[in-house]
């Protein structure tokens, strides 16, 4: 597929414009919502804080929400791009391959049976659940004479996601207290999250994003094919293992702070390729920018869909992403 930005200069310009859009959306996230806030009031909250209701909402709710939206959107998108690269599966994403469901399951188990409430513990549990789910899906996808194939990986991921989701729902039905504690989180939302929640996972998310940029050149070699990569001297197992670790950091960190938000990781990498082509040195940063744009836009829209109530942003991303997922799936199956 021909991409839109042909030259390096245009790609850098696209990144700069995308970054400006992210900043504009973060500012809009601070201003727009159920509580009417003017731009001057938002500015005064930082320069002349007076303890008013509007200023408290801005500092304690809207600013953390904007920062979390940008971080989670970027993380899920980059995790999806890495998954699609190392599996050579255009349908791969943290939600489709069960990574989000595994992270959710681990947290619900901890809340249900061990009454865990620590944000730091949530982070580690999300990473553990994401890693276990990834390992199970990979093992199932490699079974059989043909080895790992995109179709088998997708089916294994869907099965594991369904299993973990069913187990999670079953535990919540049996434990109403746990349901109350984690329902807001399981919906996939960034509303009501605090900077402390982001602070608990931002080191891991930062490592994942920076690591993805550094590994992008090796990913370019890997996607040429296993035999070609090995022929060029690449130790493909180490590259895949490194990418898998970054995926766990990004997806686990995102789920820990925002819950399982669906389909960002599958939609955004395809949009990045539309602009940049197949070079992962550009796909990774474009995925981060576009992921932040998508999640921030969806979160702002979610405030108005059923006002005065708010829809979880995960619902909006599912509505946006499902038709795109069906399109990609139909295109890939028609090519078989």
From TrEMBL:
Compartments (UniProt record): Cell membrane
Transmembrane segments: 12-34, 66-85, 97-116, 122-141, 153-174, 194-216, 237-263, 283-302, 309-329
GO cellular component: plasma membrane
Membrane topology reported for the UniProt record: Multi-pass membrane protein
Source domain of life: Bacteria
Keyword flag Transmembrane helix: yes
Main location: membrane
GO biological process, one term: siderophore-iron import into cell
Keywords in alphabetical order: Cell membrane, Membrane, Transmembrane, Transmembrane helix, Transport
The name this protein goes by in its record: Iron ABC transporter
């Amino acid at each position: 597929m021909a991409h839109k930005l042909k030259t390096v200069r245009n790609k850098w310009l696209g990144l700069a414009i995308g970054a400006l859009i992210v900043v504009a959306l973060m500012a809009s996230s601070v201003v727009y919502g159920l509580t009417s806030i003017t731009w001057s009031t938002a500015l005064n909250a930082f320069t002349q804080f007076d303890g008013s209701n509007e200023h408290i909402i801005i500092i304690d709710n809207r600013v953390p929400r904007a920062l979390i939206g940008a971080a989670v959107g970027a993380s899920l998108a980059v995790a999806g791009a890495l998954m699609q690269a190392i599996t050579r599966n255009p349908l791969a994403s943290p939600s489709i391959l069960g990574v989000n469901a595994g992270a959710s399951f681990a947290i619900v188990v901890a809340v249900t049976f061990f009454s865990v409430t620590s944000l730091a513990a949530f982070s580690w549990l999300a990473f553990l659940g994401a890693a276990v789910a990834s390992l199970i899906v990979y093992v199932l996808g490699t079974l059989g004479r043909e080895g790992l194939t995109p179709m088998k990986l997708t089916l294994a991921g869907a099965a594991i996601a369904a299993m973990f989701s069913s187990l999670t729902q079953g535990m919540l039905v049996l434990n109403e207290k746990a349901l109350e504690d984690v329902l807001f989180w399981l919906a996939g939302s960034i509303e009501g999250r605090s900077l402390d929640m982001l602070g608990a996972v931002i080191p891991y998310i930062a490592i994942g994003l920076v690591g993805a940029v550094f590994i992008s050149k090796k990913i370019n070699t890997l996607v040429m094919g296993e035999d070609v990569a090995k022929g060029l001297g690449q130790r493909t197992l180490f590259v895949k293992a490194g990418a898998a670790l970054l995926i766990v950091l990004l997806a686990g960190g995102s789920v820990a702070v925002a819950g399982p938000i669906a389909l960002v990781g599958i939609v955004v990498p395809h949009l990045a390729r539309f602009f940049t082509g197949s070079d992962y040195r550009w796909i990774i940063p474009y995925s981060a920018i576009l992921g932040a744009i998508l999640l921030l836009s969806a979160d702002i829209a979610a405030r108005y869909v059923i006002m005065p109530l708010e829809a979880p942003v995960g619902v909006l991303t599912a509505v946006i992403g499902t038709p795109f997922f069906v399109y990609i799936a139909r295109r890939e199956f028609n090519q078989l």
